[in-house]
Amino acid sequence: MTADVLTPTGACADPRAVAAEEPADLARVVRARRRPTRRVRLVIATLAVAAVAAVLVRVLLGDYVVALTDLLPILRGEALPDAPGASFIVMEAKVPRALLGLLAGLAFGAAGAMFQTTLRNPLASPDIIGISVGASAAAVIALTFLDAQGLWLPAAALVGAVAVGLLMHAVGRGTTLAGQRMVLVGIGVAALLSSVIQFVMTRTSIQDAQAALVWLTGSLARATWPVIGMLSVAVLVLAPLLAVCARWMRLAELGDDLSATLGAPAGRARLGLVVAVALAAVATSATGPIAFVAFLAGPIARRLCGGRPSLWAAALIGAVVVVLSDFAGDYLIPDVNLPVGVVTGALGAPLMLAVVVTAGRAGKA
Amino acid sequence: MTSTTFAPTPVDGTALRARDLTLSYDGRRVVEHLDLDVPAGRITVVVGPNGCGKSTLLRGLARLLRPTEGSVHLASDGAHDDVWSLRPKGFARHVALLPQSPPVPEGITVVDLVGRGRHPHRKLVRRWSRADDEAVTRAMRATGTIELAERPVDELSGGQRQRVWIALTLAQETDVVLLDEPTTYLDLAHQVDVLDLLRDLNRSRGTTVVMVLHDLNLAARYADHVVALRDGRLVGSGAPADLVDEEFVAQVFGLRSRVITDPVTGSPLVVPTSTHHQSGATS
To answer: Which of B91, B116, B140 has its CB closest to that of A250?
Structure first.
């Protein structure tokens, strides 16, 4: 190990001549650069196929099985003579749930990975640092005290999540320890808002409490086309922005000083956080907080990609997990419909332990 | 652009010039009214007791900390630009800084990390180019890290890792390189190894090197120009042989010592005579 450190370094006589002189070294550098990229591309392609497969499973299977050959005519709006109810069930129940799960999963996965990488802290995911709780609290308050209904509820949730995001941004601004401060403040805010929710729940009627519960455990039950439309517009607008920010994220990983000396304008990395907050906020306003998805999608993606974080892999993992968990929640236990948040919560805890344990081992390698 | 970056800077010029420079954190002045000329194409070492503002000065020179008073000017192409008048990427093509222990991104390979140094040379839309690959190869050859290309950085030893970080700043292809204690956490053999590497780069490429070093003897051995700070003020500057004597060590570090001639290099060698600091010492 020390041998190659101590090799003499007289090889830098004329730097311009180096490339021509040693094509083997250039080839090695190019090969080494491409290898991880190839793996990441393969993982993303596989996950994309898995996400499509998960959506198909959700749409076709279950209590009411639809043949793949019937799906296209139904989507085109043609009536099926031998199954008159099929169109309604597919278009009003199955497809919306699958799509909402897909979109929310993408948003949660990408937002979580963005937070964790930019703040260089695995705890920094929107469900841990108060963004999701902000959405829940706002929705529950609007429901109980303002009698909000329909699309006003997601709107209130959006306001709550964005408010927490702004607070964290204000706290982190202009300090060298922005990352740590934001995470700590977020955890504190999350605790505070949880107790607000508890308090509101004790003041409310049974009916309202029942409705409020949906905002405490994420659920795809309110999958309606207006909600899906809102979420898909948000994802379509924010995802390209996130792609631009991902470039700065690669610098932000090097720490504030080094990224600044490489020419990243100050505070640019936190712009990525703003986009991530918006994504998480919109997704939470549509489905409520879906436990562990944002928190775990990033680490799982990193494991699959050979140690490097990938936003797109994380987003696709989020989508696969949410869609399949919703499916499992509906049919795993006969006659019981578990909200998707309960399933991901139950899956998430052991998975988190597994991630932590294997990460410890990998760190020793 | 690459052809100009590698043209050796004239040895008699000034690469960076600070005038009346005052730097503060949260209203607390750390560096006060400092005038400094960094000679181009030379190795300048900043020394001084803990907390004297060495690293802060480096951050001020690297455009990381905006001066509360005074200015820092970059001498490039004959013009003297205030560093804060340049665009971040433009400045980053002239001056590179290696912070003391930057975080290693998780799972990153050596070649990927070194490639991050190419950022100032890349356009938002342009893809990775052959010129980028060549710059990375040059930087890795110069630092002897080609053999590590595919390895994850977090598996490397301290000495190897420091070479990789230096390769990153070299891939930036700047004419000035600032390093904040590049030898921290390294044993003596690797300290000498890293400093030899930096001197080779300085001698072969004409790169202006400015570094903060803790060890006064290593500073005297490798520096062409020593800058001594105490309590945020300039105490002295000049060639080590002219500057470093018993009075200087007492004044800067509050340490009683004998200064003899290094039998290997002929540079001044400080031998402490007392483990007790004189009154007024701040270390």
So the answer is: B116
